[in-house]
TrEMBL record:
CDD domains (alphabetical): Endonuclease_V
EC number: 3.1.21.7
Function: DNA repair enzyme involved in the repair of deaminated bases. Selectively cleaves double-stranded DNA at the second phosphodiester bond 3' to a deoxyinosine leaving behind the intact lesion on the nicked DNA.
Cofactor(s) named in the record: Mg(2+)
InterPro entries in the cross-refs: Endonuclease-V
Protein name: Endonuclease V
Gene that encodes the chain: nfi
Location relative to the cell: Cytoplasm
Pfam (any one): Endonuclease_5
Amino acid sequence: MISAPRTIAEAEAVQDRLRPLVDLVGPGPAEPRTVAGLDVAYAEDGVRLAAAVVVLDTRTLTVVDSAVAVGRVAFDYVPGLFAFRELPTLLDALDRITTIPDVLVCDGHGIAHPRRFGLACHLGVLTGRPAIGVGKTPLVGSWEPPARQRGAWTPLIDGTETVGRVVRTRDGVKPVFVSVGHGMALDNACSLVLTLSPQYRLPETTRQADRLCRAALVAGVVTDRG
DNA sequence: GCGACAG
DNA sequence: ATCTTGTCGC
């Protein structure tokens, strides 16, 4: 890692510096063949963590590659600066996969962020890969509840900008918040999320990644000293 | 000033 | 994120 910010001001400066590098034009791969899910789990001390990257075949939703990395939180939790906590360990995990995924599906937001630079943008810019954010709860923006049916959606609007979509991935189940991270159009991002969520609320990518990093913690991969 | 606030 | 029992619904 290069410059690890230590203060809120430094972290915000990093986001402001990288934000112009976000690609909001590229539509993304027409037919993503592999998709990576990323997630982290925290140890009981709340300091050590395990990050997992799981690469799935988009057609079969089967795991074709995966990796785990362990580390320590790199920043206090501050809404809007969440990425700095997990970024170093997530990047370590990404370094350990041998596949180059067509899209990164991140557990958090992309441009649906106060400074339009959430975790998905950060990971997209740093890796140069198309990336999207799938959040379980909103960070910014207002919206109307989508219709009850799976596939229904409403725009997520912050001020005068549409920063994402509120997407129903299961009938009558709480929707997810999808936003562009890097190099992928919102339409395509939402289609992909639905493809990745045939059965559960969250995409298989994040479900598998969540499973893997939790298993890593149980397995004691994260030990003393970390 | 008061509340909201990804994971 | 993580701490946690029962409960509603298919």
